[in-house]
Each structure stands twice: as structure tokens, then as C-alpha cells.
Amino acid sequence: MNRQRQFAWRWAVAGLLALLLAGCGHKEKPQARVPAPPEITPKRSESAAVPRPGKALYVETGLASWYGPPYHNRRGANGEIFDMHALTAAHRTLPLNSVARVTNLQTGHSTTVRITDRGPFIEGRILDLSLEAAKQVDVWRPGTAKVRVEVLSAPAEIGRGGRWCVQIGAFKDRQAASRLKLSLTRRYQSATVLQFTGPTGDWIRVRVKDDEKQRAEALLKDVVPAEGAAFLVRLD
């Protein structure tokens, strides 16, 4: 009986050793460490970044057009480089960097833009949209459309204050622009008359004393250019 127990005990020990050796010889497959996916921060469009208050500061209805080349990558009136793929617009009298919602009155499509430039300098139009903004409100293909402009925020008062001038052009004939500049300089000695060249021709800008709005409005009524048109323009 003792032999049988000893024999059984030896077999048990041998089996245990075999199991231990087998366990020591097995290698676990290395686990590849998969990094967490990168966080994706959605790009905030200019329209999404602007709160939409219930009541607009100012509302205007009129004809909008759009502009891109040859103004793309040129400096705008607020000092920034104009990007026709950004949601911006040009307006003659709203304070620069105002934010406005523009709605196409026919299609109902709207977008939110920032006023970064001055224009349009064509009579009968109130707003020049960037190419991207024009696409969003269905102005790109037809070229013009009737829109509603609702100012959502402005860095300065809209109805009063500001710095103003009269801008005349565009002149296809540079000599005609120079003659008008000389005439205005002699006639309005307290004003500063500047001549500059833009993508569409030569322009004249008349800055009245203290850039005061009433003086600029009076000058606008008094000036009848032989070429181009005269516009009241806010500088700030």
C-alpha cells in the first residue's frame, strides 16, 4: 500500500512539473498599443461664431453683388488681406468689422458676414459679397440679387459719429482723374484730395475737414464728376 501511494505521489509530482514547464515555455503574443484617435476640433465658420440676437441693430434692403478676382489677396479697408473664400463683404457706410446677416429675399438663403471693405462703387447697389458668401446666398451665378442686411453687432455707432469722405471713380482715363483732382484741390482748399489706382481704374478720395459727415454730405451734393460717380464713404 505504501508503494502504491509513493508511486501515485511520484506521478502527481511529475504531472505538476510537466504543467509548470509547459506554462513557462508559452509566450503570450505581444499586444499592440493602439493610440487614441486624435481630437478633431471643428473649424468654426465666421457665421457660426456670431451670436444671433433677436433684434437687429440696423436693417437695410437693396441690391447685392459680389467680388473676387482681381481683389483677392489685396488689402481691404480694415487693413486685412481680402480672401474671397472667407465670409466677408464690402459696404460703403457700415462701421468696419460690423457683423451682418444677409438674406436673399427670393430664395430665403442667408449667411453671416463681417464688413471688411468699402464698396460697392456702382450706383444702385448696397453690398458687395465675397465669392464664398455670394455662393451661400445665391448671388454668385446671377451676379446680383435683392437682399436684406441685418446688422447683428457693430464696433461703433451706425447712425452718427465716424470719419467720412467722398470717393469718386472709377476713371478709365488717368488724366481725367488728375484734372478733377486739381480742380477739387483749388475749389476746396480745406479738403485733402488724393488720387490712387485700383483694379478697376483711378479713383479720387476727398477728405473734408475733420472727416466730418455733414461736410462730406454737402460736398457729395456739390460734386458732379464728368466720369464715374461720387459716393459717401465711411473710413472707420
Per-chain topology:
Layout: H1 2-25, E1 58-67, E2 88-90, E3 99-104, E4 110-117, E5 125-130, H2 131-136, E6 145-153, E7 164-171, H3 174-187, E8 192-198, E9 201-207, H4 213-222, E10 229-234
Parallel strand pairs: 1-5, 2-4
Antiparallel strand pairs: 1-6, 2-5, 3-4, 3-6, 7-9, 7-10, 8-9
Could you explain the architecture of this structure?
The chain has two domains: 58-153, RlpA-like domain (Barwin-like endoglucanases, Beta Barrel); 164-234, Alpha-Beta Plaits (2-Layer Sandwich), CATH 3.30.70. It has helices at 2-25, 131-136, 174-187, 213-222, and strands at 58-67, 88-90, 99-104, 110-117, 125-130, 145-153, 164-171, 192-198, 201-207, 229-234. A hairpin with a 5-residue loop joins strand 3 and strand 4 (110-117). It contains four helices and ten strands. A six-stranded mixed β-barrel has the order 1-5-2-4-3-6. 29% of the residues are buried. The protein is an alpha+beta fold and 236 residues long. The termini are far apart.
Tell me briefly what this model is.
The chain is of the alpha+beta class and 236 residues long. Helices cover 23% and strands 30% of the residues. The strands form 2 sheets. The protein has a 6-stranded mixed barrel with strand order 1-5-2-4-3-6. It has a 4-stranded antiparallel β-sheet with strand order 8-9-7-10.
